[in-house]
Amino acid sequence: MSRGAVLAAVVGFAVLWGSAGIGVYKVLGSRRGAIAERAARPDQANAGVNPALAALPGTLYLVQGGALYHLQKGQFTAVLPAGGWGQPSLLPGGKGLVLMKRDPHGFSDLYRVDATGHAVQLTHNQGKGAVAGIDPGTQLVTQYWAMFPRTSPDGTQLYFTTDRYKHVRCCPFDVTMRVAQLPISGSGTPKFWTVDGVTQTDTHTEDGDYAGGDSRPIPLPGGGLLFVRYAYAGTTVTSQVLTIKQARGTVTQLTAPMDRCDQPSLSPDGKRVAMVCSYGRQVTTIEVASFDGTTLGPRQVLVNGVLGAQPVWSPDGTKLLYVAPVGITGHFQLWSAAVPAVLPTPAPPPPPVKTAGRSRVAAPPLPSPAAVPPAAVAGPPPVQLTDNLDFDATSPIAWAT
Question: Is the dihedral of CA 141, 142, 148, 149 positive or negative?
Answer without folding.
Answer: positive
